[in-house]
Amino acid sequence: MSDYWNSRVINLSPYVPGEQPRDRQFIKLNTNENPYPPSQRVIEAIRKTADDRLRLYPDPECTEFREAVAARYGVKPENVFAGNGSDEILALAFGAFFESSAQVADNREQGTDGKVILFPDITYSFYHVYARLWGVEYRTVPLAGDFSVNPSDYMIPSAGIVLPNPNAPTGMALPLDALLPLVSYLDTQGKVFILDEAYCAFGAESALVHLCRHPNLLIIHTLSKSASLAGLRAGFAVGSVQLIEGLRRMRDSFNSYTVDRLAQEGAAAAITDAAYYDEINRRIIATRDRVSQELARLGFTVLPSQANFIFIRAPGRSGIDFFSFLRQRGILARHFSGERTADFLRVSIGTDADMDVFLDACQRFLI
Q1: Within 10 A of 162 (CB to CB), how many other CB atoms are there?
Q2: Does residue 2 fall inside a structural domain?
Q3: Residue 19 reports pLDDT greater than 70
């Protein structure tokens, strides 16, 4: 707390990222990083770009990166927005498409729209942060008893919806035939549906192929997980020209050069090397399924995941005890302290060797 802070800063509850230790060597299964290296095409693209051009500002429109995304997913470049990671794009989207509570109050007085945005009660915690940052009124929709998202719970008048598919930290995903009717319903209200597909590459269905039929749908991807580029910070959104222009107006009112020159080149190279990334992500899926089956055999509760992590509960033991046990043995996982999640850990999928060490520790924890 500081006398110099304004009320906005005082009232913020910032996002807390996963631990990035520097004091000792850990098997890091706490931040959903891809355990395999980036494509060599990415490394070479960055090396070739690291020259005297760094004295120049990068392309503010991220043309090469956007064109690579457009070619990969069969859309036009004007339907693509590039950002400094998906988190930045999400922040811009909250500011561009959802009214602040002050504006909502004005609308109520005028007898117009006074509704709130919706997202799950157990989900990516940055959604709460962005809503508070922009002063957006929101309501969280409880997950079902099995931690699944029930689309019918969202079939109510709202100011917009934000939904990750797969969800985090559960890893559970909705099929598109359950998701798209909700997008259409929201379109009848003239509201935006933000679909966060950060983990879609690990087994879930992407809605990108349906984008042309849903002008209110904004799909956001990150290269941090599926492209092994968490250290690069690059992401993209795909949507109608109107939605993309809204993001551009927000960006250019804040910082026109959000994606640096090296990141643009590396991201474009990653998008073009689909074969490499499809292969390493298939390996992650195979490892995830093997580990899930073994944990279930040991008596753990394992939610069905279509992400590069699993959400698990040890039989008869607390989540914090399990977390501490693993950490003492050099394994980092992510513990969430919420009422329904306190006994669960989110465990990123590492290499097969990493996960064998993890499974051995799980067996020892039960002794």
Answers
A1: 28
A2: no
A3: yes
* Residue 224 and residue 102 share a domain: yes
81 exposure class (CB count in 10 Å sphere: 0-12, 13-18, 19+)? buried
Q: Which helix (H) or strand (E) holds 271?
A: helix 261-272
Cβ pair 111, 212 in contact under 8 A: no
What secondary structure does DSSP assign to 313-345, as a single string?
E-TTS-HHHHHHHHHHTTEE-EE--STTTTTEE
CATH of the domain at 209: 3.40.640.10
Residues 242, 304, single domain; the answer is: no
What whole-number distance in Å separates Cα of residue 230 and Cα of residue 225?
Answer: 7
The continuous run of DSSP H or E covering 360 comes out as helix 352-365
Same domain, 343 and 297: yes
pLDDT of residue 110: 45
Are residues 269 and 283 part of one domain? no
Total structural domains in the chain?
2
**Encoded tokens for 201:** 């590459």
Give 16's pLDDT tier (boundaries 50, 70, 90). Answer: confident
Beta bridge pairs of residue 302: 312
Give a yes or no: residue 129 inside a domain: yes
Task: State the Cα angle at 317 between 313 and 320, rounded to 5°.
Answer: 80
Instruction: Provide the whole-model pTM.
Output: 0.94
- For 20, counting Cβ atoms within 10 Å of its Cβ (0-12 exposed, 13-18 middle, 19+ buried), the class is exposed
Least confident among 78-92, 105-119, 150-164: 105-119
Token pair of 142, please? 């409880």
Mean pLDDT across the chain, nearest whole number? 94
269/287 same-domain check = no
Domain residue limits at 11: 7-30+275-365
Say yes or no: 16 and 140 in one domain: no
